[in-house]
Automatic annotation (TrEMBL):
Keywords: Amino-acid transport, Cell membrane, Membrane, Transmembrane, Transmembrane helix, Transport
Main localization (coarse): membrane
Transport keyword on record: yes
Membrane protein topology class: Multi-pass membrane protein
InterPro entries: ABC_transp_permease, BCAA_transport_permease
Protein name per Swiss-Prot or TrEMBL: Branched-chain amino acid transport system permease protein
Record-stated family: Belongs to the binding-protein-dependent transport system permease family. LivHM subfamily.
Annotated localization: Cell membrane
Transmembrane segments: 12-35, 42-62, 68-87, 99-118, 149-168, 200-220, 232-254, 266-285
Length: 295
């Protein structure tokens, strides 16, 4: 059997696929973080808990109401976005004029409360969520076997990431959002309700986390710990890409996921730290991140 650098093709491409799957979630979650930080200047440590909340909403819709995966893709992000709007209006809006540290501490506390509530209600063991019937099975590509659902996750996350980038960077609404972060008083003078725009932006950012949670539910078990296990890596991705950079969040998320997959093939012992090593190197060379702008 032919090999690539001494590795069987099935093993190499299988790990690359796993890396691409992880990269899809890194990209979606870091995209939401970048939107929130770029528009609101809030370091949202509750993002991992809201990702977990999206998965649990999908699971509860299935087990308690009988609503399946496809409707959960719409309803769970809306529910998580509504929670985000409530948090922004009641708590975060009071901190915008204070140092970033206050927002980080508040959202960290919110994350602990959400995770603690679900650990109390459901324990730490994971809950299974079935793959939708339409996406069961897979495709034999010759050099590897591609499960249909994993291919769907990669494609869906890529479409969402590109659509979000286009909306923020290439549309009039995105121009208003960017202008509101630079000079909210001037934008308000043009008749635009800046506080409402800020609230909806936060709701949209956390809705992306909820969507990622629904996509992750059939791959990983739905567990109260699923957000805390991922959020540290996602923050590292955001720092490497550049805080607030939409394009940086997307490209870095996918790139680091693939690099993590390659590391598992050639040097498995380093796969858990490779992202943090890269973060340290990037911060030494370019403190603003690969796509960030120097202040």
């Amino acid at each position: 059997m032919p090999t690539i650098f001494g590795i069987p093709p099935q093993a190499l491409f299988g790990q690359l696929l796993l890396g691409l799957i992880n990269g899809s979630f890194y990209a979606l979650l870091s995209l939401g973080l970048a939107v929130i930080f770029g528009m609101l200047n809030v370091i949202n440590f509750a993002h991992g808990a809201l990702y977990m909340l999206g998965a649990f909403v999908a699971w509860l819709l299935m087990t308690q109401v009988g609503i399946g995966y496809w409707w959960a893709l719409l309803l769970a992000p809306l529910a998580v976005g509504a929670v985000g709007v409530l948090l922004e209006k009641s708590l975060l809006s009071r901190l915008y004029k204070l140092d970033h540290l206050y927002g980080l501490l508040l959202t960290f506390g919110i994350a602990l409360m959400i995770e603690g509530l679900f650990r109390h209600l459901y324990g730490v063991s994971g809950q299974p969520y079935p793959i939708p019937r339409e996406l069961a099975g897979g495709q034999n590509l010759g050099f590897m076997f591609l499960p249909n659902y994993r291919g769907w996750v990669v494609a869906a996350s890529l479409v969402v990431c590109l659509a979000t980038w286009y909306a923020i960077e290439r549309t009039q609404l995105g121009a208003y959002l960017r202008a509101a972060t630079e000079n909210p008083v001037l934008v308000q003078a043009f008749g635009i309700n800046v506080p409402r725009m800020v609230t909806l932006t936060y709701g949209f950012g956390v809705a992306l986390a909820g969507l990622a949670g629904v996509l992750a539910a059939p791959i990983y078990q739905v567990s109260p710990l699923m957000g805390s296990n991922l959020i540290i890596v996602v923050f590292a991705v955001v720092v490497i890409g550049g805080m607030g950079s939409i394009l940086g969040a997307v490209l870095t998320g996918y790139g680091l996921g693939l690099l993590e997959g390659l590391t598992k093939v050639f040097y498995p012992e380093a796969s858990n730290i490779v992202v943090f090593v890269i973060m340290a190197v990037v911060l030494m060379i370019k403190p603003a991140g690969l796509f960030g702008r120097e202040k």
